[in-house]
Design brief:
Layout: H1 19-30, H2 36-42, H3 47-50, E1 54-55, E2 63-64, H4 81-115, H5 127-136, H6 146-162, H7 176-185, H8 192-202, H9 211-241, E3 247-251, E4 261-267, H10 270-278, H11 283-292, E5 297-302, H12 303-313, E6 317-319, H13 324-329, E7 333-338, H14 347-353, E8 357-360, E9 371-372, H15 380-394, E10 409-413, H16 417-425, H17 433-441, E11 446-450, H18 466-477, E12 480-485, H19 486-493, H20 508-517, E13 522-526, H21 531-544, E14 556-560, H22 566-578, E15 581-584, H23 594-608, E16 611-614, H24 618-636, H25 649-656
Parallel strand pairs: 4-5, 4-7, 5-6, 7-8, 8-9, 11-12, 11-14, 12-13, 14-15, 15-16
Antiparallel strand pairs: 1-2, 3-10
Helix pairs in contact: 4-6, 4-8, 4-9, 4-22, 5-6, 5-9, 8-9, 9-21, 9-22, 11-15, 18-19, 18-24
């Protein structure tokens, strides 16, 4: 795992741990371009809003409350500080669920069109997963043709959003003991839309005023995402575009090529980006490139759309959330094609300084100053061709303000649940048993999920992006196997942590497992919605036995060390309800209520076995996670490392005497 020492521009090494980011950030400032990195130093967070005690739900406010002052403990409507904080927290969870689930709905609607032959640009690629999902959704496949099965799967999947009563279909994948607890708590989700609407209703002025009762609805809404919207998106995307297997790829600014037409696909949904990649080498495209003097088209990814393409096709990843404006500032991006989520409104503003065409494709995410080319799955081919024509004809308009940092990193990504199971057990004995055994034997201390965004907002003196790397290095050095999704994964990929060569940074036990399997100590699982893969993996670990009889018994923990979006809170909540410790940094917007904070950080563990925690530094995050894993190991009686004893024939005879 070779590393190249780069000289940072003066003062920039304190801002980011990425040399490429520092170089382009300096260029953007020299070009007179303001980015999120600049705005983060100009705009300071509101201390009242940060603590979650500013309520603007009705016109009698906004009410600025203070738990320590009796005269400011309640808003004009009478709502107390714990109620206001819980309402704000629940609203964010509902918003996060809506984002992931509307993504899942789009996939389900397209999937149904494909099954009915109404979307010619797609086809079913993973038939094994189609049949498995049909079984979990209760579709009887006996005597049915493939397209008929797919149609029924699409209908049932789409109904999960509008279902009003009963339980969502995929909760049958939840371990029995955990599902029974959810039923007792009354938090098993009924339908995605039902839970989001009820959450928004309960959080209105004059509505639910018991923060514990509000949190039950927050839980039910978050679980509707994890076991509904996100899981449906992941499952159907796998069936349409193939289930990921490990792919070798590259990432960072160096994947851009000045001799090619550079198209950056950005956002979260692969419905357009996947067929767009397929068209890159079409004769028509190559002919147009030749006419403008380009060698071809270079399609690269940004954010979670990038993770979808990387894990399935090895498409290069140029940057994460925090770098999206800077990628345009290189001066060589001919078109940035966005769908939705995590897209900055300033992209067209930055593009005005250069030549880039910012193309929006979803009516759910229109941006002033962008070129709108509406995407519809029934006419994907014509949309793809229009995007290519726009990008290629824009190639000659480049200015002389061009800079591509000569830095790219190798990465291995695509460790889906199915591949990981195969990796450990083979074709005929695919199983998570070897993972459980390695944990029981002490070679692997536990498993950690490190997920979420990378943030240009620097807090507590930490460099942007560095928290992921520092946390992951600490975990693997202590024999904790790490799984990553989203921008967190690609951030660590830039530092070589997602390569098999990173084994040398792991503890001796984890290193021995990685060497035997030929894998990195950090596994790239996929995009943000693919956190649902981790839910299924944990269920599989519990089912294999030897590590207790519930998810809360497992020596596992999760963290989002640079969280930004409401989607991160939704993910955190469904893992806390699953029985997992989740540690967030920076702090949650709940500190204005000590009572509510105590409920999430302490009391919640007695209710679900999982809980929330906060830490200021990556080292503190790692310490909380490792201490929690060790606590679970002690409870299981596996805290002392024991080498496995292989019985020889003499020992077997002794057993029979």
């Amino acid at each position: 795992m070779a590393s190249i020492e780069r000289e940072f521009p003066e003062g920039y090494s304190e801002v980011t741990n990425s040399w490429g980011t520092a170089i382009v950030l300096r260029k953007a400032r020299e070009d007179g371009v303001q980015t999120a990195w600049d705005r983060s130093t100009i705009i300071k967070p509101c201390p009242i809003g940060t603590d979650g005690v500013c309520c603007n739900t009705c016109s009698m406010g906004p009410c600025r409350l203070n738990e320590d002052r009796p005269d400011r403990f309640r808003g004009v409507c009478g709502a107390s500080v714990p109620t206001i904080v819980a309402r704000s927290f629940t609203k964010m969870i509902a918003q996060g669920c809506a984002c992931h689930s509307d993504h899942g709905r789009s996939i389900a609607e397209t999937f149904l069109k494909v099954a009915r032959g109404e979307a010619a640009g797609y086809q079913i690629k993973d038939f094994t997963k189609l049949y498995a999902l049909a079984a979990d959704l209760g579709v009887n496949v006996q005597g049915m043709q493939t397209n008929d099965i797919a149609e029924q799967v699409g209908i049932v999947a789409l109904n999960q959003f509008s279902q009003q009563h009963g339980e969502m279909a995929l909760v049958k994948r939840v371990p029995a003991k955990r599902l029974q607890l959810w039923r007792q708590m009354g938090i098993v989700p009924r339908g995605v839309d039902r839970e989001v609407v009820e959450a928004m209703h309960r959080t209105n002025m004059g509505m639910d005023q018991d923060y514990k009762n509000l949190m039950r609805q927050a839980s039910r809404t978050a679980l509707a995402d994890g076991w509904g919207g996100s899981m449906i998106a992941t499952e159907l995307q796998d069936i349409l575009f193939s289930t990921p297997n490990p792919q070798a790829g590259k990432l960072d600014f160096g994947v851009l090529d000045a001799d090619y037409v550079n198209i950056v696909v950005h956002g979260h949904e692969p419905l357009l980006s996947d067929p767009l990649v397929d068209y890159a080498t079409a004769p028509e495209v190559l002919r147009m490139c030749e006419e403008v003097g380009a060698k071809g088209v270079n399609v690269v990814g940004m954010c979670c759309t990038a993770n979808e393409l990387l894990t399935r096709h090895g498409v290069p990843l140029v940057g994460n959330f925090a770098q999206q404006e800077l990628v345009i500032a290189t001066g060589v991006v001919d078109a940035m094609v966005v769908d939705y989520q995590c897209v900055l409104e300033t992209l067209p503003v930055v593009a005005q300084r250069y030549h880039t065409k910012v193309i929006t494709t979803s009516n759910k995410c229109r941006i002033p100053g962008s070129l709108f080319i509406e995407f519809e799955p029934t006419r994907v081919a014509s949309t793809v061709k229009e995007i290519y024509r726009t990008a290629i004809t824009n190639y000659p308009n480049r200015t002389d303000r061009v800079l591509i940092p000569d830095q790219d990193s190798q990465i291995v990504a695509g460790f889906s649940f199915e591949y990981t199971k195969y990796m450990m057990g083979g074709s005929f004995r695919a199983s998570y048993r070897p993972l459980n055994d390695a944990i029981i034997d002490g070679r692997i201390r536990g498993v950690a999920a490190v997920v979420g965004c990378d943030s240009p907002v620097i807090r507590n003196g930490a460099r942007a992006g560095a928290a992921h790397e520092e946390l992951v290095r600490e975990l693997i050095a202590n024999d904790v196997l790490v799984a990553q999704t989203g921008c967190s994964a690609s951030t660590c990929g830039k530092t070589g942590l997602l390569l098999p060569e990173a084994q040398r940074l792991a503890g001796s036990g984890l290193q021995s497992i990685c060497e035997a399997l030929g894998i990195p100590p950090v596994l790239h699982v996929g995009s943000c919605v693919d956190n649902s893969r981790l839910l299924v993996a944990l269920a599989e670990m519990a089912a294999e036995g030897g590590l207790g009889d519930d998810i809360s018994d497992l020596p596992v923990a999760g963290a989002a060390p640079e969280w930004i979006d409401a989607k991160a809170l939704t993910i955190g909540q469904y893992f806390a309800d699953y029985g997992v410790l989740v540690v967030f940094r920076p702090k949650l917007h709940i500190e204005g209520s000590k009572e509510f904070q105590k409920y999430l950080f302490e009391d919640y563990e007695a209710i679900t076995g999982g809980k929330w925690a906060h830490a200021d530094t990556p080292a503190e995050v790692a310490s909380l996670m490792i201490d929690h894993i060790d606590k679970k190991r002690r409870a299981l009686g596996i805290h002392e490392r024991r080498e496995r004893v292989l019985f020889d024939m003499a020992m077997r005879r002794e057993l029979g005497e």
